[in-house]
Design brief:
ten-stranded mixed beta sheet, binds 3-isopropylmalic acid, Isopropylmalate Dehydrogenase, D-malate dehydrogenase [decarboxylating], binds manganese (II) ion, alpha/beta, two-stranded antiparallel ribbon, globular, magnesium ion binding, 12 strands
């Protein structure tokens, strides 16, 4: 029987609650789908930092490299460790080291879930550049603490980085409804964003079957609220994609429904699957976090591993659950009740 080795990184706060929930669903799915999952829990988190002085061991990346995929909960507990330390010590280095350059975030309403908009139907796939741009980490501070203090943080856009994420977006659009929206702010940022637009237009010639439109980020934010049904695949830089996908989460009913996949399309290193929501320390361990985003992220993991039928079973079980009204209204049902409903939906 095929066995996949999965690294489980529950991380902090509700990350722990939802990862266990997702794992129980994935294990059950594997059992009825002819493969097995071997999970290894790694305690890397802010608590780990307080004990060890780092978010993960020095050879953490090498440890993760031997897995087929990584399932992550959430990272961050600012009352214990500054976010700038915890995120740059665990989540962000994994995305970069494993060249998970495509962050895929689906936004659509699950059955029974009421979004805040009037719009009845939309199905958007946001593709966020995940390794460079505004998150490059290039910069510094001088004259710290004085009146002359200067802080510089430079966004880095490389031809290779921009071209590969756009190409990924074009391929996704081709496999879906054939529409690609490329998001920049090239009316104000005349170097990097004009560069991005040029690469978009250059690639468009290679994909005559894809209908491409360039949007500015501000106009795209309005469009996602006013006319989400007009969008198919949306490609954006790291920071723009970060912001747009919280907006996407909002229109799909809340962060409890927003799943994501950090994909290494070349498969030269493991990909990582995580809900878009954070660690939510205020509701950690109260048993009330919605596990649907984490379970959906688990389905994306199965899909990436090639277990398409199993991924479909998980999605169907999620949809049966929300259609029953369970987990569909933020804050109404407990984590365990939602998980139990998803498990029972397998029949
Ligand atoms: C996300 C998160 C992270 C990001 C944070 C926690 C660094 O907001 O995955 O969307 O900005 O990438
Ligand atoms: Mn975010």
């Amino acid at each position: 029987m095929k066995t996949y080795k999965i690294a489980l990184l529950p991380g902090d706060g509700i990350g722990r609650d939802v990862t266990e929930a997702a794992w129980s669903v994935l294990e059950k799915t594997a059992g009825s789908s002819g493969f097995s999952l071997e999970g290894t829990r790694l305690p890397w988190s802010c608590d780990y930092y307080l004990e060890n002085g780092s978010m993960m061991p020095a050879d953490g990346i090498e440890t993760l490299r031997s897995f087929d995929a990584i399932l992550l909960g959430a990272v961050g507990w600012p009352q214990k460790v500054p976010d700038s330390v915890s995120l740059h010590g665990l989540l962000l280095p994994i995305r970069k080291a494993f060249v998970q350059y495509a962050n895929i975030r689906p936004h659509r309403l699950l059955p029974g879930v009421q979004g805040p908009l009037r719009s009845d139907g939309f199905d958007i796939l946001c593709i966020r550049e995940n390794t460079e741009g505004e998150y490059s980490g290039a910069g510094g501070r001088i004259h710290q603490g004085t009146d002359n203090e200067v802080a510089i943080e430079t966004a880095i856009f490389t031809r290779k980085g921009v071209e590969r994420i756009l190409r990924f977006g074009f391929e996704q659009a081709r496999a879906r409804r054939g529409k690609l929206a490329s998001v920049t702010k090239s009316n104000a940022q005349k170097y990097s964003m004009v560069f991005w637009d040029e690469i978009t237009h250059g690639l468009a010639a290679e994909y005559p079957d894809v209908d491409v439109t360039s949007y500015h980020i501000d106009a795209m934010a309005a469009r996602m609220v006013m006319a989400p049904e007009s969008l198919d695949v949306v490609v954006a830089s790291n920071l723009f994609g970060d912001i747009l996908t919280d907006l996407g989460a909002a229109i799909q009913g809340g962060l409890g429904f927003a799943a994501s996949a950090n994909i290494n399309p070349d498969r030269s290193a493991p990909s990582m699957f995580e809900p878009v929501h954070g660690s939510a320390p205020d509701i950690a361990h109260l048993g009330i976090a919605n596990p649907i985003a984490a379970i959906w992220s688990g389905a994306m993991m199965l899909e990436h591993l090639g277990e398409t039928a199993a991924a479909g079973k998980v999605m169907a079980a999620i949809e049966t659950t929300t259609a029953r009204g369970i987990g569909a209204i933020p804050g109404k049902d407990k984590t365990d009740a939602i998980t139990a409903s998803v498990l029972s939906a397998f029949g």
